Amino acid sequence: MKRIISLLFAVLFLIMAANAQNKSISDFIHYHKQFKKQAESFADKHEWVTFKYKNLHYYDDKLSWENEYEVIIKYDGKNSLVFYNIKDLEWLYLLDRNCYQNIEKHEGSLIKYENTIFDLSQHYEALGKHGFISRYFIHIPYYLYPIDFAHSLSITRLFSDVEEMEIKGELYKVYKYDDHKESLRLYVNAATNIMDSAYQEEHGYLSKDYYTFYDFSYENRQDYIDSIFNYDNKEYEKYSRYDVANPEPYHSLDTIVTDKLLDFPIVDLKNDTTTLREQDGWVLLNFWRCEDSYVDQLERYAQEKDSLGYRILENEGVKILAIEPRSNNMEYIKRYAGKYDCEDIIYSAKGIYNAIDATYYNYYLISPDKKVVYKNWKIEDYGEIIEKLKIER
Description:
single chain; alpha+beta; outer membrane lipoprotein receptor (LolB), chain A; Glutaredoxin; seven-stranded mixed β-sheet
């Protein structure tokens, strides 16, 4: 297997080198090793590293969304760990080589997961495959030294150049990567070996991401981490407890829709505002994102219209609210709505996830008396929903 991976990387090196002007394979490897060496030097000097970073995501030069994160790293060879706090969503992760724990805090509920096993074998990068921290590890993989770099997904980004640049009186090494899909710039302070910002532009999607890293400290944070994952922490007293080791309580969370969700403003493409409380009859809340990997259901809606323009669930008396929960960039949202002929059911409700009790799903079927009678991550067919409609009616 390792031999196959090595061959794939070798082919990749050749392709990238062939596409770059006046660059040889040795040039790419040279700049790549420079970045790796600088990151290793940073890691070797510290046992604990804490920092925050902010991600600003732009589409077509307009701010689409932003998030703030807190990261704590303990460098300890193969026993290294990462604490990861997604501020806006209140997801707290503790990651190590063999398992992860996390706490999901939502209004009125506390869901805890412990020792969930993934095949992390020799690297943390596998977590990115599960969608947890892919953006973080894409840009600073080598700061997790001494994890096995040969297995890093980010090794496919061979830097084509490095430039020394003075910014606000500080000397920086700017590592560059470019191909036909994206451009990447990593700004590493030459004196401290800290990467304090990054810029990524995806050419095909008109998207740009800016990352700023700040509030670095090197104190021992074990007590803080222990307090976060102590479920007797007084901070958690206001939450109901749900334990995934006993799935029954988890799946029987309160089905009554909260007032906060009922009254949360939902905006259509004409900039008219409505709420879930104002909807009569049956409603399907379908949460999607303005990203190509999150629009499967929009494609399905476009394909299932009958000769009169109605969709399958609409013929069953269900109103569809397809909601973008992270963005209020209406021009951005309109592009997707038009692409999939869904303008009549597309809405924006930035932050609505914070109004949902229990955990986050992509689909919620709401009854006329405003109860959740069905929820799921993915809908393979409408059989279960139609059966629910028959039972409840």
